[in-house]
Amino acid sequence: MKASFDQIIQDPRPVVVDFFATWCGPCKAQAPILQSFASEMGDAVRVIKIDVDQNPEVAQRYGIQSIPTMMIFQAGNVRYRQPGVHQKEQLKQLVRPYLA
Amino acid sequence: MNKKYDVVVLGAGPAGLTAGIYLSRARQKTLILSDGPVGGQMILTHEIANYPGVESISGYQLANIMKKQAQSFGCEIIANASIQKMELMPLNKSFVLDDGTRIESDAVILATGGRSRTLGVPGEAQFKGRGISYCATCDGDFFTDKEIVVVGGGNSALDEAVSLTKYASKVTIVHMLDAFQASQHAIEEAVNHPKIDIRMETVITAFHGEESLQSVDLKQLKTGETEVFKTDGVFIFIGYVPNTEGFDCCLDLNERQEIVVRTDLSTNVPGVFSAGDNIDKLYRQVTTAVGDGTVAALTAIRYLTEQKK
């Protein structure tokens, strides 16, 4: 998983990463919003979800101490990071500057 | 696109969902409209053990049952909506969504809830999610075997301090007053806990760290002494602020920005009612929100019946 996560965030497109846990209520509320965002954006962005319990090394590396936390990477660089449920419009605005 | 309802309920927490259940069951064409997820603050709670009739349930599950119940009676729900414009006038109650949909209704129930109050000191925004949390059930696990601080002196602060001892090796409660504002039971449990240390009449004046939080500045209010206090995490439970931004146009708010209501939960604007954590009241529980949602719905139904006469 570690190798593939590192590869994924090298993508030249914005990569939206949702750090979540299966037992977290707000994370469950985030899921359908993220799904709708992903289908609306199509190939312009890449959206992945990281279960912090299954991937503790990735979560630790980025010092995730609150879930859900949303991060945006592009070509390996961290572009954004903020905890809390993100609305679709907010996500669209956040990725806009990084779209090709 | 234009849509017309008998009642629009703004907010999808326990107050809004309950209002939706009562209104739809009474055959009122009802829309629950929320700019956030279904469940409101309830979904932050891992276990609700004081909701009568249900021994133990997660807030997320309870919210979903309420949602299904409302929908089963025909209530429509739009969650995570982006509301661009809102009118709350005696003769014009309408909402415009970002996709251009215009929603009109004869009555509105405001069940917009509240959110965690922040301390408003330097570093708080920077370290939110990097050591600062407002939700013990969401984030407690990240502080296993770490030393943390809990800010506040009410029931939620003391209860959460005790629950965080499951993870943290040490919990220091920091409270600005010289006494706790909590139930005797909650106070005793916290005060007698071997992992809990207490600093009264003390405040945090700043947060420091690099990637994540490393220390806070503590100030003892009586002596004025300050101290750099090393900590891995700070949980803040100092109450709530009502989500009433934009309502001051037309509604009477009190000095805490809560909506002023009559006992039937009507407001100063005819046809606008309010329920839940955003109103001027003493206790904020899922059960009280459900009670408010019921009262506001029944009052709204009476109002609509009288209008049609």
Give a topology summary.
The complex is a heterodimer of chains A (100) and B (309).
Chain A: H1 2-8, E1 15-20, H2 25-41, E2 46-51, H3 56-61, E3 69-74, E4 77-83, H4 88-95
Parallel strand pairs in A: 1-2
Antiparallel strand pairs in A: 1-3, 3-4
Helix pairs in contact in A: 2-4
Chain B: E1 2-10, H1 14-25, E2 30-33, H2 59-72, E3 76-78, E4 83-88, E5 93-97, E6 102-110, E7 114-116, E8 132-133, H3 136-139, E9 147-151, H4 155-164, E10 170-174, H5 184-191, E11 196-199, E12 202-209, E13 213-220, E14 226-230, E15 233-236, E16 240-242, E17 272-274, H6 286-308
Parallel strand pairs in B: 1-2, 1-6, 2-3, 6-17, 8-15, 9-10, 9-15, 10-11
Antiparallel strand pairs in B: 4-5, 5-6, 7-16, 12-13, 13-14
Helix pairs in contact in B: 1-2, 1-6, 4-5
Structure notes:
The complex is a heterodimer of chains A (about 100) and B (about 300). Chain A is of the alpha+beta class. Chain A has one domain (about 1-75, about 85-100): Glutaredoxin. In chain A, about 40% of the residues lie in helices and about 25% in strands. Chain A has helices spanning about 1-10, 25-40, 55-60, 90-95; strands at about 15-20, 45-50, 70-75, 75-85. Chain A has a four-stranded mixed β-sheet with strand order 2-1-3-4. In chain A, α2 packs across α4. Chain B is an alpha/beta fold and about 300 residues long. Chain B folds into two domains: about 1-115 and about 240-309, FAD/NAD(P)-binding domain, CATH 3.50.50; about 130-235, 3-Layer(bba) Sandwich (FAD/NAD(P)-binding domain), CATH 3.50.50.60. Chain B is built from six helices and 17 strands. Chain B has helices at about 15-25, 60-70, 135-140, 155-165, 185-190, 285-309; strands at about 1-10, 30-35, 75-80, 85-90, 95, 100-110, 115, 130-135, 145-150, 170-175, 195-200, 200-210, 215-220, 225-230, 235, 240, 270-275. In chain B, the strands form four sheets. In chain B, strands 1, 2, 3, 4, 5, 6 and 17 form a seven-stranded mixed β-sheet that branches. Chain B has a five-stranded parallel β-sheet with strand order 8-15-9-10-11, with helices on one face. The radius of gyration of chain B is 21 Å and the shape is elongated. Chain B starts with a strand and ends with a helix. The mean pLDDT of chain B is about 95. The chains are: A alpha+beta (about 100), B alpha/beta (about 300). The interface of A and B includes residues 25, 33, 64, 66 and 84 of A.
